[in-house]
Amino acid sequence: MHILKNTSHEEARDVMPNMQRRNFLKYLGIGSALVTAGSIASSCHKDHDNNPNKGVNLGTGDVAVLNYAYALEQLEAAFYTQVVLTPYNGMSPTELTFFTDIRNHELGHRDFFKTALGANAIPGLAVNFSSIDFTSRTSVLNTAKAFEDLGVSAYNGAAQYISSTTSGIAYLGLAGKIVSVEARHAAYIRDLVTPGSFAGSDVIDTNGLDTTRTPAQVYAIAKTYITTQIDTSTLPH
C-alpha cells in the first residue's frame, strides 16, 4: 500500500540527478520570479489555517487558486517519484529516462508554487496510491494518462480565476508555461498507451481546443488519491 506524504525538499534534491531544481526553473523561465515570489505572502494575510471540521483551508482569491494548483502538483510529484523509485516490469531505459524527466518537472512545479505562496502555502498532503499497481505497465500508464489529462484540464479551467500580478509577477503567464509542459507530458504518455493517440478526441474538441474542468470537478477526481481533507469551499465553482 502506497500511503505517503510528499517528498521533502531535501529528498527532492536527492532524486533529481539529471536536472537541478534551479536549472529547471531557469529553463521554465520563472527562476528570477522566485526572488520576489514570496511577496504574495506579505501582500495577503495568512488565511489557510486548518479547520478541523472542513480540513485544510486553501485561502481566498488568487491564493486559493494557486494552492489548488499546488495540491495537484504535490499529487503528480508524489506519483512520478514512486514510478521512478519502483519501475514497472519491463520498463525500458528510454521510458525510465523520460519518466525521470517528468518527475523532475513535477517536482519543479511543486516547489515553484510552494515558494510563490510562501506563508500562505498549504502543508504537504498525504496521498494513497494503493489502488495503483506500480509493477504493472498498464496500471502506471493509465494512471499517468489520467493525471496528465486532469492536470491540463485543471489549468485550462482555473486560468480565468487568476487575477493578480504581485510585485511584477504575472502568475497567469507562469501558469500558461506550466500547462504547456503538462500537455507535453500528456502527449507522451498517451502515445505510450496507444501510439498515435497524442491528441485524442476525448480531450480535444472539434475546434481543436483542450477540454477544461472546474476546480470542483478536478478535486472530485483528485480526492480519490489525496487523503488529507481539504476545504474547497473557497474555490470557484
Give a structural overview:
The chain is mainly α and 237 residues long. The chain has one domain: Up-down Bundle (Ferritin). It is built from 9 helices and 6 strands, in the order βααααβααβαββααβ. It has helices spanning 9-14, 21-28, 34-37, 39-43, 61-85, 93-117, 137-158, 171-193, 215-222, and strands at 3-5, 56-57, 126-128, 165-166, 169-170, 230-231. It has a two-stranded antiparallel ribbon. The chain has a two-stranded parallel ribbon with strand order 2-6. Strands 4-5 form a two-stranded antiparallel ribbon. A hairpin with a 2-residue loop joins strand 4 and strand 5 (169-170). The chain is globular. Mean pLDDT is 80; it is low at 5-22, 24-28 and 30-45.
Number of alpha- plus pi-helical segments: 9
What's the total number of strands? 6
Side by side, the strands of the main sheet go 1-3
Q: Average pLDDT value?
A: 80
End-to-end separation in angstroms reads 33 Å
Indicate the overall shape: globular
CATH level 3 topology: Ferritin
Q: C-alpha Rg, in Å?
A: 17 Å
* Domains (count): 1
Helix/strand order, N-terminal first: EHHHHEHHEHEEHHE
Please give the CATH class. Answer: Mainly Alpha
Based on the coordinates given, report the CATH architecture. Answer: Up-down Bundle
The chain-level structural class is mainly alpha
Summarize the biggest pleated sheet. 2 strands, antiparallel
The assembly state of the depicted protein chains is single chain
| SS strand fraction | 5-15%
